[in-house]
Structures are given as C-alpha cells and as structure tokens.
Design goal:
280 residues
Length: 280
C-alpha cells in the first residue's frame, strides 16, 4: 500500500482556507451587525421625522385656530349700525348762492378765494336739520313734534327777533303762546336726541355731497348714515342694559328711540366699507 506524502504547500493551503473561512464569517457577522444597526437608525430617523411633521402640523393647526378665533371675534367690528334715509337737500336750509365759476379775466388766486368763501358758507348750513328732517319723514311717529319744521323755525325766528314778547310775564299773560314755546322746547329736546343717534361727521358727509355736486340742492338722494358708536354698541348688546341711567352713555330717550328704530327695521347692520376706504 502506497502512502502519499503531505507536502508543506498543501499544509499551507489548508491553513489559508481555514483563515479565509473565518474572515468570511467575521465579515458576515459585521455585515449583519451593521445592517441591524442601520435598520434601527433608519427606524429612529423615520420616527423623528414623523414626530417633527406631527409637531409642525399641530403648530399650524393651533395657528389656524388662533386666526379663526380672531376673525370670529373681530368680524362684528366690520359691521356697524346704519340708518338709510332719503335726504331732501332743502334749499330753505341750504341758503347759499350758486357755486362760483371762474371768469375769463379772473386769476386762479381770485377764483380760489371766491370758491373758498362759498365753501365757508356751506359750513354754516345746519346740516343736522337735513338729517333730522329725513329721519322724521321716514318715520313720522318717532317725533311728531318735528313734523312741521317750518312752523318751529318761524317761532324760533320770532323769539330771536322779538325776545321781549317771550318773557315770563308775557308768556304768563298769553297761554297759547306759552304752549307754543313749550312745544318748541320739547321739539328741540327731541331734535337733540335724534341727532345723538348719528355719528358726528354725518352732517359733513352731506356738506361734501353738495360741495361736490351743488345741483343736489332742491333734490333728494338716498344716503345711508352711520349710527353713533354708542348707539351701535348699545344695539349690539355690548352694554349692560341693567346699569343705572347715570352709568349709561346714552340718555333714556335716545336708548328708547334707538330700540324702537331697530325693532322697526329702520336701523340696519351694514358692512363698514369706509373703514377701509377712508382709514383717516
């Protein structure tokens, strides 16, 4: 029987094979460890990404809710009580001459001076009288004392021209005249109450309408006049109605008139476009 001899080269090949196998096993083990580590890392990254996205989404949701809340609470501020009336630009009240027209031989400075003088006359007109007359014409029962403004104006003119005829002694001797004076005082009080319903600048609005178009004198035009801020707040329910009169911003008569006009639909809520068109 022949025995094969084992050479040194063959022994080295076996040793190298075992070493290569161990290296492959070690490399495979490292690969599995790395893959496992990467899997965990990717999972943590995905979780962090999802948590970040959820946090951002939640923040945007709260911001959206904040804006909705602000809009919901602030939206009523863009609406205000208004009183639509048909204003008659009574020439008996607007007693001004025709607006100046520049003459051919007139310098711009002279014309401007005459025009400014005309505008000054417009400023002296009792524009509040137009507002009161328009409201009474729309709803006569709100102030029956003011249904005949010409008669009241005539009486006031008499009192101004002849004050001696309206002294206490004279009125005591003339009950009929005393009754007229008493009615005039009542009418003046009611007139003041009606004026209190409107913003202070509404008379100037009418003035500007005539300034821009003097042909309105003697004509009528529908105008929506804004109610005073205190009236708007009262009607919107933002004032405690149980407060005593001395703590209220409006007199009892003005509050009663405002409630009546609101119930009858004379006072309406309208979008306050001048809030954006006339910010000043």
């Amino acid at each position: 029987m022949t025995t094969s001899s084992i050479t040194p080269d063959r022994l080295n090949d076996g040793s190298n094979g075992n070493k290569a196998g161990k290296d492959r096993s070690a490399a495979e083990a490292r690969r599995r460890i790395i893959e496992k580590s990467l899997t965990k890392r990717h999972s943590r990254e995905n979780l962090f990404r999802r948590l970040g996205l959820a946090a951002v989404s939640l923040g945007l949701l709260f911001v959206a809710l904040l804006f909705v809340n602000i809009l919901w609470r602030g939206l009523p501020a863009f609406w205000q009580s208004a009183i639509p009336v048909n204003v008659y630009f009574d020439p008996a009240i607007i007693q001004v001459p025709a607006r100046p027209v520049q003459m051919a031989n007139e310098t711009p400075a002279d014309f401007k001076k005459r025009d400014l003088a005309w505008q000054g006359q417009l400023g002296l007109v009792d524009w509040d009288a137009l507002i009161v007359n328009s409201l009474v014409a729309k709803n006569p029962k709100i102030a029956p004392e003011l249904k005949d403004p010409a008669k009241l104006a005539a009486l006031n003119q008499q009192m101004a021209d002849n004050p001696d005829a309206f002294t206490e002694e004279s009125l005591a001797a003339n009950p009929a005249l005393a009754a007229q004076v008493k009615a005039s005082e009542t009418a003046d009080s009611k007139r003041a109450s009606l004026i209190s319903l409107f913003e202070n600048g509404e008379g100037y609005r009418l003035r500007d309408l005539v300034k821009n178009d003097p042909s309105l004198i003697g004509k009528s035009q529908n105008v929506s006049l804004w109610a005073a801020a205190n009236v708007d707040v009262w009607l919107s329910g933002n004032i405690d109605r149980s407060l005593p009169d001395e703590q209220q911003q409006l007199s009892p008569e003005v509050r009663q008139i405002a409630d009546q006009l609101k119930a009858e639909g004379v006072i309406q809520n309208k979008f306050n476009t001048p809030l954006f068109l006339n910010p000043d």
